Amino acid sequence: MSETEIKAMLLDKFGELFGDTDGVKVYFAPGRVNLIGEHTDYNGGHVFPCALTIGTYAAARKRTDKKLRLYSINFEKSGVMESDVEKLEASKEAGWTNYPKGVMWAFSLRGMQMDCGLDMVLYGNIPNGSGLSSSASLEVLTGYILRDLYGFTVTNVELAQIGQYSENNFNGCNCGIMDQFASSMGKKNHAIFLNTADLSYEYAPLALGDAKIVVTNSKVKHSLVDSKYNERRSECEKALEELQSVVKIGGLGDLTEEEFEANKSAIADDIRRKRAKHAVYENQRTLRAVEALKNNELALFGKLMNESHVSLRDDYEVSCEEIDLLVAEAWKVDGVIGSRITGGGFGGCTVSLVKDEAIGEFQEKVGAAYEKQFGIQADFYVVEIGDGPRTL
Ligand code: GLA
To answer: What does the pLDDT read at residue 223?
Structure first.
């Protein structure tokens, strides 16, 4: 569906549900794909994501009372979910609305209380649960709409921080800031080289020559994603504490590989040592990958992507057999520069750098092997890198 069609669909639905469309505005915020730097963002390390041209759209208008009425075309069955802007509480029944509500709640904690309610119709074109940050795009979108409609003074970096805060404290997932930052700070045809220790960042032009970024959706979503994610995070925190007894560091991202090797015996447990090793090595790989891209060394960039996958598979243990097969099959295709799992893990998507002339063969071979083994048809997206949130 084109953006014009999505806008028309949202306005139609808005009129149907809420009477008319006078003064309604339509907004968009993107999802993201991470090229390298996985599970480093809550370890004071670097990440290298980019915003996509797919994401979440909303038609919104302020009300005169305190009611909040939210509707998603993706979750039609839930109908219009009604609540009150002065009583924002997370609940299981609230389902997807916990994300926008969490952002409104986080704004109010920063002294930006909505003085009236809101009607909003949403539609997302990121496949749900695919690891391309549909939730972060919804959080950033909500913040962007609040800023526009209520006149709150917040920067785009703050929109990312508020989104992360609400996801941590309202929705109970201890995510880092990468996804929200990639969405709120996205720039067309650029990846964002972000240091999560101090939020300094640089835009890197994605000069991929005759190659493209291909995202492969395994369509597998394992349960316990949030709890496993939180578990990894606490394993890293514990490992950091142990290391801090022997070296002066603020985060695992402060260590080079050599420093880690020299001090790793301070970590008492094998599993935690592997987790910390991933965080340290992955951060160093990310620094090297960005350098490689700057120097036009795409083959090296791809090799680092592959190493990232192996580390996430073996040391961090956030992959799964379906994703491992997609990656292993990708590696076999001539013209694949690099391929790895992307995002939080336990299913979701892989990201591959593929030469133009090999994209057809890549989809065919990887798709066939995957279907043969698991009986699932993977989806392939040759993605475009887009800008951050905007009003349509
Ligand atoms: C999820 C989280 C991010 C990041 C990635 C792993 O997407 O939301 O903060 O930790 O996993 O790199």
So the answer is: 61
